[in-house]
Specification:
The structure holds two protein chains of two kinds. Helix content of chain A is about 75%, strand content about 5%. Chain A is mainly alpha-helical. Chain B has a domain at about 290-560. The relative contact order of chain B is 0.09. Classes of the chains: A mainly alpha, B mainly alpha.
Chain lengths: ~625, ~550
C-alpha cells in the first residue's frame, strides 16, 4: 500500500459517509467533505516529493478482472505527469470544496452535493493515478457519472436533468470509441498496462496505431468537449457553478488532454492521428471562441471559452508539444476555475442572475470578486506576465517552429477572439453601468470570506504560476524539464529574435482584442437589449452555436426515435408478434377443420373404415 | 447428497405446506420464506466448497433410475451451473418477500407453486442426465404457467398460454433431438444412455444429423433466452406476471436458455456450433441493438425492462458464441448480472406499482422529491444495468466485447453501440420517473421504501457493487470450467479434421505475465495435442481458439 492510495480513498470515504449518513449530517456535511479533499491534497504533495527527481513507480492493489489471458489490475502508476495532475485536481478541488461551503449554503441537498463532489475527486484522482487503460476507462466513466449527477443536481429543474442526461449520452458516444480502442489495444498487444503498451506501441503497424489512437481520441473528444462531441458542455452549465468550475473547466474536461498526452507513444506511432488531433483541436479552438463572442449568459461564455481552450491543448498535443499542453492545462485550471468561481460569486451576489445583460457596475459593490475575476480574465486573455500568457505562447511558438503556419495563424486569431470575449465579459459584468433592476441592485453584496479566500488563492496562482514554472529557456520551461521523463524534449530551442517577435505579435493581438471590446462595451456602449438579439444571419449562427444541436436533433435523434417507434409499434407487434400469433391461429384453424372429421356417428366411422379397407384391397390387387 | 438437498428442499417444503390447513396467509408467507432461506443456506456451502482449480463436475451424485433405458439420476455442478444455482436460490427469497402485499389471495397455492418452481429451476441447472434435465425443464413450465395465469394482470391467461405454448414448441423439438442423439450414440457405441458426460465425450460425426440436432436444441434455447426474433412472448409474460414472477422469469428462467447453449449445444454439437455460430451471433447482435431501440419508446416500465432483457441477453449469447475465454467468462458473469440488475429493476417497478397501480412512465416524475431512498436505489440499479464501470454490468459486458473483438471487430463495434442505447433508454427512464418536478398529485404522498423493501433490495445492491469491484469472486469459479469446455469443443471439432487432412495449425499460446502460465500452457498442450505450445506466436491468435478461422469441417461422414 503506497501513499498514493490515500489520495483517492480519503474522498471516497468522505463520499460514503455523506451518502450513508447524509440525513443526520445535513448542514455539517462540509466538515466531512472539505478535510478529506484537503488531506488528499497533502497526500498528493507527499507523493510529489517522491517523483520530484523525475522518478516513477507502480503500485498494485489487486487483480480486478481475470479471464483467460485477459488480466487487468487495480494498479497505480505515478510519474511527474501524474503528480502535476494530482496536485491540480486535489489543490483546485480543495479550494472549490471550500468555496462550495458558502455557495451551497442553505441548499436542501447540501450533504448530497458534497457526497457527489467527494465522489468526483475520488474518481478523478483514480483516473489520474490509474496505471492501466481499463482502469483509466473505468474512472473515465466514473467522472462522467459524477458529472451527470452534479449537472442534474437540482433535479426538479427539467433543463438540469436534460443536460445531465445529454452529457452522459454524448460522453457515452465518445466512450464507444474509447472502449473499442481499449479492446483493440488488448487484442494486438495482450496487455493494457501503460508501460507494456507504450513499449509495445513501437511494434504496431502504423495503420493499427492510427485506428487505436483515433478511437481513443474519440473518447477524448467526448470528455474534453471537442468537435463534434462538444454540445454537452455548454448545457452542463445547468449544474451549480462550483461544479462548473471544478468539473467542467479545471479538471474532468481536461481528462481527454491528459489521456492523449499520456498515450503519446501510440499517437506518435501513427502520425496521422496526431495530425487529426491537431486539426480537431485548432478547429474547436476557433469554433468555440467565435460562439463565445456573443453569448449573453456569463456561464455560457465561460463554457465556450473552456471548449476553445481545450482546443488549444489538443492543438499543442497535435504539434507534439505535450509539455506545453499540460502547462496550458494547469494554468487554465487556475484561471478558468477562478473565472467560474468569480462568476459564481457574481451570481450569488445577484441572487441567481446569470444574464450579462442584467449585470454591470459590480466593481463598486463586489471589490474582491472584481479584482480576482479580472485577474482571471487577464490570465485567460494572455496578458503578459500572467500564467495564460506563458502557456498560450508556448503553444503558439510550437506551432510556428514546427512549420504549421496555418495553425499558428488560426490560433493567433483565436487569441484575439479570446481577448475580446474575456474583456467583453469583464466589462459587461463589472465595469459598465448597472443594468439590473433597482430591487436586484439593492441586494448586491460581496460573498462571504469562505468564498473569497479561494478566489484570492487562485488569483495568486494565476499571477505566479507562469513566472514560477513557465519562463522559456534554452531547454524549455521549467515544467517541461520536470516532465522530461514523460515527454522527451527534442530539438533545440529556436533562436531568440524570432521568439521575441512572436511574443510581441501575440501581445499586440491580445491588446487589439482588448481594445475592440473596450470600444464596443465601454467607450460607446451598445444597448444591453441588443445583446443576444442577432441582427445578421451570422450573428444568429454564432448565437445558436452554428445550430449544431438542432442539426444533431434533425439528423440523429429524431430519425432514430422514429425508427425505434416504428420498430416497437409496427414491426415488433404488427410483424413478428403477429406472425407468431398467426402461426398459432393457423394451427388452431387446422385443428378446427380436422375436428369435423370426428363427427361422433359410428356409421360415419364405419363407412370410412370400409372405404379405407376397399382402397387397401384395391391397391393390393392392382399390384 | 448436497445437490439433492438443495434441489428438493423447496419441493419438500411445498409438500409440508400443502399439509398445513389453509389459515392465515402469514403462515405460508413465513413458511415459504424460511424454506427458500434454508435452501439458500444449503447452497452457500457449494460455493465455499467448490474447488475452482478443477474443471470437473463437483458434488456429483449418480444413482441408477431406469437402468434398462440408460436413465440415471445424475447431478453435479461445474463452474457455470454453480453460479446459476446460487443466483436461483438467492433470488427466490427476494421474490417471495417482494410478494408480501402484492399477492392478496391464495397464498398457500402461491407459495407451493413458487417452491415447486424452485425445485424445477435448480434441477435444470444440476441435472447431468438428458432425460432428467428434460423432466425438470418441462416440469418448471407448469408452476410458471400458474404464476402468470393465476396471479397475473388482466391479460394473464393470454400471456400464460403464449408463454407455455411457445416454450413447448421448442421443447418438443429438443426432445426429438435428445432421442435422436440417444439413438445415434447407442447405435454407434452399443451403450444406450442419456448420461450427459458420456454423450459429451463421444464425438458425433459432423453433418446433417448433427446440424439438425443443434437446430432443435438451439431453437428451444433461443425461445427461452429469448433471442431475436423469438422474443415476443417475453413482454407479454412480463407485463402480466406478478412482480415475483417477473423477477424469477427474468432472473432465472431466461438463463436456462443461455445455459442450455453452453451446456448442450457447444459440447455436444461443436461442428454445428461453428457452422451456425455466425447466424447466432448475428441474431444476438440484432437483439442487442433492436432490444435497446424498442425499449427506448416503451410507455410501460415493465415492458421497457422486458425489452432491455432482449438486449442484455443478446450480449450473453454473443459472449458464448465468440468461443473465447473472455467471451464465455463474460457471458456467464453477465447471466448473473442480468439476474441481479433486471431482477432489481422489476422489484423496484413492482414497488411503485403497488403504491400507484400504474406502470406507465407518464404517470410518474419527480419521485426523488417524495421517495429519495427508492429513487437513489432506482438510479443505482439503472446504472448497473447500463453497464457503468464499478458496478456489475460493466465487467461482463466488457469481457464479452473483448471476446467479440478478437473474433470480429465489426461485430464488437455494433454490439458496443448497444451500450450507448442502454444509456439512452435507462437514463431517459430515470429522467422521466425519478427526476423533475412532481407532476401528478397522486405521487405527492408516495411512501418511501418500507423496512421490508429495504431488506430485500439491499442484498441485491450489495451484490451489484461487490461484483463490480471484485468480480474474481465469481469469475474465478468458472474459469477452469470454461477453459475445459473450450478445449473440449476445440478438440472435438479437430478430431474430425486430424484424421482427414494435415494436423491443424497449433493455436499459439502465449503465457501471461506470471500468474496463469501453467494453466495456459496446460490448456495449450491439451488443445494442440502433442504440439508443444509455442511462445512466440502472433498474439492475436492466442486467445480466440481460432475456431472460426480454421477450415470448415468435412460434411460427409468419415469412412
Amino acid at each position: 500500500m503506497s501513499t498514493v492510495w490515500f489520495i483517492p480513498t480519503l474522498p471516497l470515504a468522505g463520499a460514503l459517509v455523506n451518502i450513508l449518513l447524509g440525513d443526520r449530517i445535513g448542514r455539517r456535511a462540509h466538515w466531512v467533505a472539505v478535510p478529506t479533499v484537503a488531506g488528499s491534497f497533502l497526500a498528493a504533495c507527499a507523493v510529489f516529493t517522491r517523483a520530484w527527481d523525475g522518478g516513477s513507480f507502480t503500485s498494485r492493489l489487486f487483480p480486478w478482472i481475470v479471464a483467460g489471458r485477459f488480466e487487468a489490475w487495480v494498479v497505480a502508476f505515478v510519474d511527474p505527469l501524474t503528480c502535476v495532475m494530482l496536485l491540480v485536481v486535489t489543490g483546485v478541488g480543495a479550494l472549490i470544496h471550500l468555496y462550495s461551503v458558502g455557495y451551497m449554503h442553505g441548499d436542501p441537498g447540501y450533504a448530497r452535493y458534497f457526497a457527489y463532489l467527494n465522489l468526483f475527486v475520488f474518481s478523478m484522482t483514480m483516473l489520474v493515478i490509474a496505471g492501466d487503460f481499463l482502469l483509466l476507462y473505468v474512472f473515465w466513466e466514473a467522472v462522467g457519472l459524477c458529472s451527470y449527477l452534479l449537472i442534474g443536481f437540482w433535479y426538479t429543474r427539467p433543463a438540469a436533468t436534460q443536460a445531465g442526461k445529454k452529457a452522459f449520452i454524448v460522453n457515452r458516444v465518445g466512450d464507444f470509441g474509447f472502449g473499442l480502442g481499449v479492446m483493440w489495444l488488448w487484442t494486438v498487444l495482450g496487455t493494457l498496462e501503460y508501460g507494456a503498451v507504450f513499449k509495445g506501441a513501437e511494434t504496431l503497424a502504423p495503420a493499427t496505431a492510427t485506428g487505436i489512437a483515433l478511437l481513443l481520441f474519440m473518447g477524448a473528444c467526448g470528455k474534453s468537449a471537442q468537435l463534434p462531441l462538444h454540445t454537452w458542455l455548454p448545457d452542463a452549465m445547468e449544474g451549480p457553478t462550483p461544479v462548473s468550475a471544478l468539473i467542467h473547466a479545471a479538471t474532468m474536461v481536461t481528462a481527454g488532454v491528459y489521456m492523449v498526452a499520456r498515450s503519446h507513444a501510440l499517437f506518435e506511432r501513427s502520425g496521422t492521428a496526431l495530425e487529426v488531433v491537431l486539426w480537431v483541436g485548432t478547429a474547436t479552438a476557433l469554433f468555440a471562441a467565435t460562439v463565445g463572442l456573443v453569448q449573453p449568459d456569463i456561464k455560457r461564455v465561460l463554457a465556450y471559452s473552456t471548449v476553445s481552450q481545450l482546443g488549444y491543448m489538443f492543438a499543442a498535443i497535435g504539434l507534439g508539444a505535450y509539455a506545453a499542453a499540460i502547462f496550458h492545462l494547469v494554468t487554465h485550471a487556475f484561471f478558468k476555475a477562478l473565472l467560474f468561481l468569480g462568476a459564481g460569486s457574481v451570481i450569488h451576489g445577484l441572487g441567481g442572475e446569470q444574464d450579462l445583460r442584467k449585470m454591470g457596475g459590480l466593481s463598486s459593490r463586489m471589490m474582491t470578486t472584481t479584482i480576482t475575476t479580472t485577474v482571471g480574465g487577464l490570465g485567460l486573455a494572455g496578458v503578459p506576465g500572467l500564467a495564460g500568457f506563458f502557456s498560450k505562447d508556448e503553444i503558439l511558438a510550437a506551432a510556428f517552429h514546427s512549420g504549421h503556419l496555418v495553425v499558428w495563424g488560426l490560433l493567433l486569431l483565436g487569441a484575439f477572439l479570446t481577448a475580446f470575449y474575456t474583456s467583453r465579459l469583464l466589462f459587461l459584468a463589472f465595469y459598465s453601468d448597472p443594468r439590473m433592476s433597482r430591487e436586484a441592485a439593492h441586494h448586491v453584496h460581496e460573498s462571504p470570506s469562505v468564498m473569497t479566500l479561494p478566489l484570492w488563492v487562485l488569483a495568486v496562482l494565476t499571477v505566479v504560476a507562469g513566472l514560477a514554472v513557465g519562463i522559456p529557456s534554452e531547454r524549455g520551461t521549467r515544467l517541461a524539464r520536470f516532465l522530461e521523463p514523460v515527454f522527451p524534449l527534442h530539438g533545440e530551442s529556436p533562436d531568440g529574435s524570432i521568439a521575441y517577435t512572436l511574443l510581441i505579435l501575440s501581445v499586440i493581438v491580445v491588446a487589439a482584442g482588448f481594445a475592440v471590446a473596450w470600444f464596443v462595451y465601454l467607450a460607446s456602449p451598445v444597448r444591453a437589449d441588443t445583446i443576444g438579439r442577432p441582427r445578421t444571419a451570422f450573428g444568429a449562427l454564432l448565437l445558436n452555436a452554428y445550430y449544431v444541436d438542432r442539426l444533431y436533433d434533425a439528423i440523429i435523434v429524431r430519425p432514430l426515435f422514429g425508427l425505434a417507434t416504428f420498430l416497437a409499434e409496427r414491426f415488433d407487434l404488427g410483424g413478428i408478434d403477429r406472425a407468431v400469433n398467426g402461426l398459432g391461429a393457423a394451427v388452431v384453424g387446422w385443428a378446427a377443420a380436422t375436428r369435423r372429421l370426428q363427427t361422433g356417428y359410428v356409421v360415419n366411422y364405419a363407412l370410412t373404415m370400409l372405404a379405407g379397407a376397399v382402397l387397401v384391397v384395391a391397391f393390393l390387387l392392382s399390384r | 447428497m448436497r445437490l439433492t438437498a438443495v434441489t428438493f428442499l423447496p419441493a419438500l417444503g411445498a409438500l409440508v405446506l400443502l399439509l398445513v390447513p389453509r389459515r392465515a396467509a402469514s403462515v405460508f408467507k413465513l413458511g415459504g420464506l424460511v424454506v427458500t432461506l434454508v435452501t439458500l443456506l444449503a447452497a452457500v456451502p457449494l460455493y465455499v466448497g467448490f474447488d475452482d482449480r478443477v474443471a470437473d463436475v463437483q458434488f456429483e451424485e449418480v444413482r441408477p433410475w431406469m437402468p434398462g433405458v440408460g436413465i440415471s439420476y445424475h447431478l453435479g455442478v461445474d463452474g457455470i451451473s454453480l453460479l446459476l444455482v446460487l443466483l436461483t436460490t438467492f433470488l427466490m427469497p427476494v421474490a417471495l418477500a417482494s410478494a408480501w402485499h402484492a399477492i392478496e389471495d391464495r397464498w398457500k397455492e402461491f407459495v407451493v407453486t413458487m417452491l415447486i418452481l424452485e425445485t424445477g429451476m435448480v434441477g435444470v441447472f444440476v441435472s447431468l442426465d438428458l432425460f432428467l434435465f428434460y423432466v425438470f425443464w418441462e416440469a418448471m413450465l407448469i408452476p410458471m404457467y400458474f404464476i402468470i395465469g393465476v396471479w397475473g394482470g388482466t391479460k394473464r391467461v393470454y400471456a400464460a398460454i403464449k408463454f407455455v405454448l411457445y416454450t413447448m414448441v421448442g421443447s418438443v423439438l429438443m426432445l426429438v433431438a435428445i432421442l435422436a442423439l440417444y439413438a445415434q450414440h447407442g447405435a454407434a457405441t452399443g451403450t444406450y444412455t442419456f448420461d450427459l458426460p458420456v454423450l459429451t465425450r463421444w464425438v458425433l460425426p459432423p453433418g446433417l444429423a448433427q446440424e439438425l440436432m443443434f437446430l432443435a436444441f438451439a431453437l428451444a434455447f433461443a425461445i427461452k433466452v429469448p433471442l431475436f426474433p423469438f422474443h415476443t412472448w417475453l413482454p407479454d409474460a412480463h407485463v402480466e406476471a406478478p412482480t415475483a414472477g417477473s423477477v424469477i422469469l427474468a432472473g432465472v428462467l431466461l438463463k436456462m436458455g443461455t445455459y442450455g447453449f453452453l451446456r448442450f449445444c457447444l459440447p455436444l454439437f461443436p461442428d454445428a456450433s461453428l457452422v451456425f455460430g455466425p447466424l447466432v451471433v448475428a441474431l444476438a447482435v440484432i437483439g442487442i441493438v433492436y432490444g435497446a431501440w424498442v425499449s427506448t419508446v416503451q410507455p410501460d416500465m415493465k415492458k421497457l425492462v422486458a425489452y432491455s432483457s432482449v438486449s442484455h441477453l443478446g450480449f450473453v449469447i454473443l459472449g458464448i458464441f465468440t468461443l473465447t475465454p473472455q467471451g464465455l467468462v463474460g457471458g456467464v458473469l453477465q447471466m448473473v448480472n442480468h439476474g441481479l440488475s433486471t431482477g432489481a429493476l422489476f422489484l423496484l417497478v413492482g414497488m411503485v406499482y403497488e403504491r400507484r397501480h400504474t406502470r406507465l412512465i407518464a404517470d410518474f416524475g419527480g419521485l426523488w422529491s417524495v421517495a429519495p431512498a427508492f429513487s437513489s436505489l432506482f438510479l443505482v440499479v439503472a446504472l448497473s444495468s447500463l453497464g457503468l464501470p464499478g458496478l456489475n454490468g460493466f465487467v461482463g459486458e466488457f469481457l464479452i466485447l473483448v471476446g467479440a473483438f478478437q473474433t470480429n471487430p465489426w461485430v464488437a463495434a455494433l454490439a458496443t453501440s448497444g451500450v450507448i442505447f442502454a444509456a439512452v433508454y435507462l437514463l431517459w427512464l430515470c429522467q422521466r420517473v425519478i427526476f423533475g418536478a412532481v407532476t401528478h398529485e397522486a405521487n405527492r404522498g408516495l411512501r418511501d421504501l418500507s423496512p421490508r423493501e429495504w431488506t430485500l433490495l439491499v442484498p441485491v445492491v450489495v451484490l451489484i457493487v461487490w461484483i463490480g469491484v471484485y468480480p474474481s469472486a465469481l469469475t474465478g469459479k468458472t474459469e477452469a470450467t470454461i477453459e475445459a469446455l473450450l478445449a473440449q469443443v476445440q478438440s472435438k471439432a479437430n478430431a474430425q479434421r486430424v484424421s482427414v487432412g494435415p494436423p491443424p495449425v497449433a493455436p499459439a499460446v502465449r503465457p501471461l505475465n506470471g500468474m496463469r502460465d501453467d494453466m495456459w500452457t496446460a490448456a495449450g498442450s491439451r488443445l494442440v495435442s502433442g504440439h508443444p505450445p509455442t511462445h512466440s506466436g502472433s498474439p492475436r491468435a492466442s486467445d480466440a481458439l481460432r475456431l472460426r478461422t480454421t477450415t470448415p469441417a468435412p460434411r460427409t461422414p468419415l469412412p
